Amino acid sequence: MPGNTSTPDWWRGAAIYQVYLRSFADGNGDGTGDLAGLRSRLPYLADLGVNAIWLNPWYPSPMADGGYDVADYRSIEPVFGTLAEAEKLIEEAHDLGIRTIVDVVPNHASDQHAWFQEALAAGPGSEARERFWFRPGVGDGPPNGWQSIFGGPAWTQVPDGEWYLHLFAPEQPDFNWNNPVVREEFLEVLRFWFDRGVDGVRIDSAAVLVKDLDSVEESYTDHDGVHEIYREWRRVSDSYGGRILIGEVWLPDQERFANYLRPDELHTAFNFDFLSSAWEPAALRASIDLTLATHVPIGAPATWVLSNHDVARPVTRYGRAVTSWDNAERRDGMPSDLELGRRRARAAALLAMALPGSVYVYQGEELGLNEVEDIPEELIDDPMWERSGHTVRGRDGCRVPLPWSGTEPPFGYSTGEPWLPQPAGWRDLTVEAQEADLGSMLCLYRSALRLRRELLGDGTLTWLPYGDEVIAFRRDSGLVCLVNLGAEPAALPESGSVLLASGPLDGDLLPSDTAVWIMEAR
Ligand code: NOJ
């Protein structure tokens, strides 16, 4: 059965829910989400019908980049809880049929990591410095002109005059993956978490581990040498009986992307091409075709992703004049028609869930939350804000704590003050409000995930001819998915029974920006 977690290849058709722990649910009233909060809400995730959860980094961290600055890979951030609680979470989730995937961050650590502190103390030429990229500068400046992905130079100078490389914030020094000690350390980290029962890891910034520092041009993306690393990781995951490796691989070149999914490397990787696609029929169809053409020949299942903790929420994105996503051009604050965006996001959800492969749901997507664009400047936490000289507000707008219940903030999320303020307008979007409304986004997601478990997941699709404006395909089970992206209503098929629609149908017409699942008459 697709998505059945008891089968060894459960991941091929899974629905995976992304938990941004900091903002999911707060169990101790300090305003920050934690393991106690998550454990208390596991029944919600079981009701939603997901097969697995992926948690963003939960390790001790100064939170210079929301936990992607890891100070200790074998422990839990005290604000989130304890290792014992993490073990309980894994067990309780398993009891509910939910697998657990943790985030591993191999490209960089926190500057508070013991190894980096040791490297600072040990000084130039030491073995401790060889675990990172320390170099003398050129003249008064850094070793080269590489820029950080968050803005500003990718090098920071330490008091003894050397510089260290950080592709992200200065608090995130990059590991030197040419050093076998680094390689061995991460194999041990994988074993540590697999020994505690985790079912997979999501690999942060997976394509940038190997660097050529002699290059004047920035030279860190997708070096061939990175594949050797993942072959080693795969041997470890296979030795645990099929724990899975999921790559965060942002690469426009699909052939290069596919290399990460060879049978002895990663199991799956996030489909950012689909996430970035404009809400336009030709663009979406092309993205789906490209995805399948990339995955099918190598036997890897596709993934379908609409959002995560780094990108603007789909409700806001799809309501803008420009509906595609581009990391370099975030379009923060571009006006959005949220009603239109929500209608499209509902249709997009049915599209993503109907496609062959696995699907990701980022917390709050199932509630139809919008991007929060008016967080007061003094509360902005994302390092992009400082690094861009206050020109890019960054990613906090999709990381605002979830609204669970009640009519005013903190909406049952916490008994204290949430670490980012929640909009008062979310009173209509709480879990409690949506559970009581059969037409809500939450009810749509629940119904769709239930049907998906029975009828969809991995497999193949057959395109159906419904004209340029309608995306239409049939799945192996006989389920037909139609999405009308045109301005005019489109005719529904004459036979078959409607299982689910993203919005009201107009007799035998499918309105604009609406998706429907139909079971073919047999
Ligand atoms: C990708 C993560 O998703 C993002 O949140 C983080 O800032 C960077 N990698 C650096 O770790």
From TrEMBL:
Molecular function terms, GO-annotated: alpha-amylase activity
Domain Glycosyl hydrolase family 13 catalytic residues, every copy: 18-399
InterPro entries: GH (IPR017853), GH13_cat_dom (IPR006047), O16G_dom_2 (IPR045857)
GO biological process: oligosaccharide catabolic process
Family: Belongs to the glycosyl hydrolase 13 family.
Protein name as catalogued: DUF3459 domain-containing protein
Classification of source organism: Bacteria, Bacillati, Actinomycetota, Actinomycetes, Streptosporangiales
